[in-house]
Each structure stands twice: as C-alpha cells, then as structure tokens.
Design brief:
disordered N terminus; 3-stranded antiparallel beta sheet; globular; 1 helix; 9% helix; 13 strands; mainly beta; 214 residues
Length: 214
Amino acid sequence: MEKDGNSRSLRKLGGPGPSFYACQPLGGRALIGSVSHFPSILTNKAMQYIKYLIYFFAPILLQPAAFAAGVPFPALQFLVGNWQVEAKPGEGAAHFEFVLDLQGKVLVRHNHVESSATAGGAIHDDLLVIAQEGIPATIKASYFDSDGYLGRYAVTANGNQAVFVSDAVPKIPRYRLTYTALPDGRLNAKLEVAPAGKPNAFANYLEWVATKAP
C-alpha cells in the first residue's frame, strides 16, 4: 500500500491483469462511484479525491485506443504464415511461423531449428511474443528459448521490412534481427550481434532465406 503526503492511501483492487486503484483515507471507505454520490457542494478534500480517481483510471479507460480497428499489426502482416528455411545439404533444417493470437492482440512466432548430424544434431526452439504497448502504441517483443535465454526487443516495421533490436544490457551481447520481404514472395532474414560492452557495434552473424508454405 502506498501513502501520499496528506495521509491518504492508494489501495490496489482486483487480481492478475490491469490494476485498479481507489483513493482511500486511512481507516475510511474507498471513494469509488459516480460523482452523484457526493454532496452538491464538494469540499476541497473531496475534489482532491476525484482528481486521484481520474489520474489512476484514465490510462486504463484509454488503453483500448492502442489497438485501432482494422487489420492488427498492419506493418507486420507480411510475416504472417508458415515459413520453411532454405537449407543447403548438410546444413540441418529450420522452420518458423508467425500467427495472430488473443483475438489479434498479439503476434506470436514459433521457431524450430535442427542442426545437422555433423554439428551434433542439437534442437533449438524459441518463442517470440509481439504486442503493442502504451499510448501512442509502440511495438515490443518478448523472446524465450529452449536454451534459457530471454530478452526484450523494440520493433520497427514498414510493411516490407521489420527490425527487432534487443534492449542493451550490460555484459550481454545485443541482437538485431531484420526480416525483409523479397520481390518473389520469399523472406530474407539477417541476424546481427553486437558484443558485450559495445551495444551499437553490430556485425553480421547469420543470414538465411525462407519460403512461405502454400
């Protein structure tokens, strides 16, 4: 519970999900309801309570504006679908898919990689969850993989290219993944890595081309 300088408390309401707060005098009842519940002549203290309610509820009430009507993630629609990575003999196999979930509120990528037998035959799986955050909305992504790595990415896209850049974290390499739509319908992907301590010194690490499944 948090307190302000006038001996009032902010009480959190509800369970998991969006947090709702009510202004509550210590030892009193929470002030939740319509303004009609207050006397016609409001005291300065009551007006202060109303201001707190507006301050805490306004971001929640306006949150749906971050998800505009129409096609979800329009600048990332070129990624949606199942993709097979074009591999040369002896390189192993990989495929990934981008699919909308939660009624279009998130875009999820599942990635599966099997290295060649000569490389040990290791299997790698990862999950990327892309969502809109804040008002005005920005696109962010959370990454998780079977090696135990997790990271946060900022995303920029224009309908033909999408760039995912991981947050800069001390003593940890930084990653930049770029997807580019090719004229023939295929997808080019390039992964760059910046060494720990040099977050902007990106160098090419891997590059591949994928074909969309019919």
